[in-house]
Amino acid sequence: MSRFMIKDTQLLGLKVIQRQPITDARGNFCRLFCAEELRTAGWIKPIAQINHSKTQGVGTIRGLHFQYAPQGEMKLVSCLHGEVWDVAVDIRLESPTYLQWHAERLSPENHTALLIPEGFAHGFQALTPQCDLVYCTSNSYAAEFESGLNPQDGALAIAWPLPVQNLSAKDASHPLIQDGFKGYFAQ
Ligand SMILES: Cc1cn([C@H]2C[C@H](O)[C@@H](COP(=O)(O)OP(=O)(O)O[C@H]3O[C@H](C)C(=O)[C@H](O)[C@H]3O)O2)c(=O)[nH]c1=O
């Protein structure tokens, strides 16, 4: 019995993963990650890190972050407390959907995760006063390869559901795409 329903999006490689919980009188059990089942969704590397971020403040945004090639990372993003509006932006210069974005509401109640391939920037907005994200990455954190896009960049026109709040100084200072961004491969 499959433990996930895997759905494509309009951005090649970006998948919506619907966990299929097994429920009984005690509650329910579901897998957050399964190498065998998620291989078909494109996760072919070992997990390098599992991160937990706790975010407070409705409207808070973290992101949009990515690591340049060859230190790119796949991410499987799950929300285990609260609710977030999770966004992935295609930054593969040759992609027909370059700079297009896709968003999903993630919460423990909807059992939804986002599987984000390399070549995407990732960010999210807190829709509840506190949100806990747990996400697997396929590569280690490498500050020297890390960069980001400004979540309020007009070239992306991301329709954040709430007024943007509580950006870190780093996120507020990401350059605008018009200032010479050349995609994921061009550090
Ligand atoms: C990602 C990461 C960060 N750090 C250090 C770097 C900073 O000293 C501190 C906080 O980092 P940052 O402000 O980048 O954390 P977030 O804003 O939550 O960024 C993360 O959230 C967005 C939405 C993502 O998609 C990335 O996974 C990640 O960049 O943790 C580490 O030590 N290891 C790590 O793997």
UniProtKB/TrEMBL annotation:
It is an enzyme of class 5 (isomerase). Pfam families: dTDP_sugar_isom. It comes from the Bacteria. It catalyses: dTDP-4-dehydro-6-deoxy-alpha-D-glucose = dTDP-4-dehydro-beta-L-rhamnose. InterPro entries: RmlC-like (IPR000888), RmlC-like_jellyroll (IPR014710), RmlC_Cupin_sf (IPR011051). Its EC number is 5.1.3.13. Catalyzes the epimerization of the C3' and C5'positions of dTDP-6-deoxy-D-xylo-4-hexulose, forming dTDP-6-deoxy-L-lyxo-4-hexulose. This is dTDP-4-dehydrorhamnose 3,5-epimerase. It comes from Deefgea tanakiae. The lineage of its organism: Bacteria, Pseudomonadati, Pseudomonadota, Betaproteobacteria, Neisseriales.
